[in-house]
Design goal:
- The complex is a heterodimer of chains A (112) and B (112).
- In chain A, 0% of the residues lie in helices and 51% in strands.
- Chain A is built from no helices and eleven strands.
- In chain A, a hairpin with a 6-residue loop joins strand 4 (31-37) and strand 5.
- Chain B is globular.
- The N and C termini of chain B lie far apart (37 Å).
- Classes of the chains: A mainly beta (112), B mainly beta (112).
């Protein structure tokens, strides 16, 4: 049973560029959340998608946007990249029957 | 504002020693989860606690949720090098608040 799959694993972008990160949830999960983890910090909540709608959003600017597809997979888009956007971006999936989240291995984004 | 404070931030011990990691907050959480994260990987769920005063055991790991559901602890007995990693606590407020709020983590190193 595949867990959460994220792509790409690593990415280097230039300031001002745009990036799209992808996530396939664990089989049986219908909810996808995105987190940003800076070096030495715990993950910070970006937003959560359920039934193809953004259900909740954390304290991130509008440059961060997302989408959920009918097959429950999700994308995270970041526009106008800043150096401070460099971080590990984690996707976590869950379902209404689970308290816990299953995390992917993340996408390491470096902005230069 | 860091809603969940973890202590200690760093812990280096010898194999066979016992240790306790603390997770404290001024806020009440409907559930609290503990994760372990290894370098380059996403967090892996260890346990979820939902009832005040609840104690859960996972082999050599003992988790406790405070009576007021504001704090939690993780105790490891006879630590082994394989226990090395970043331990994260994460709380969920409940209701329509779906996000997990993470602490900064405790980086545990168990030396052989």
């Amino acid at each position: 049973d595949a867990g959460v799959t994220q792509s790409p694993t690593h990415l280097i972008k230039t300031r001002g560029q745009q990036v799209t990160l992808r996530c396939s949830p664990k089989s049986g999960h219908d909810t996808v959340s995105w987190y940003q983890q800076a070096l030495g910090q715990g993950p910070q909540f970006i937003f959560q998608y359920y039934e193809e709608e953004e259900r909740q959003r954390g304290n991130f600017p509008d440059r961060f946007s997302g989408h959920q597809f009918p097959n429950y997979s999700s994308e995270l888009n970041v526009n106008a990249l800043l150096l401070g956007d460099s971080a590990l971006y984690l996707c976590a999936s869950s379902s209404w029957v689970t308290y816990g989240y299953t995390f992917g291995s993340g996408t390491r984004l470096t902005v230069v | 504002t860091q809603l969940l404070e973890q202590s200690p931030q760093f812990l280096s011990i010898q194999e066979g020693e016992n240790l306790t990691v603390y997770c404290n907050s001024s806020s009440v959480f409907s559930s609290l989860q503990w994760y372990r994260q290894e370098p380059g990987e996403g967090p892996v769920l260890l346990v979820t606690v939902v009832t005040g005063g609840e104690v859960k055991k996972l082999k050599r790991l003992t988790f406790q949720f405070g009576d007021a559901r504001k704090d939690s602890s993780l105790h490891i007995t006879a630590a082994q090098p394989g226990d090395t990693g970043l331990y994260l606590c994460a709380g969920r407020r409940g209701g329509s608040n779906y996000k997990l709020t993470f602490g900064k983590g405790t980086l545990l190193t168990v030396n052989p």
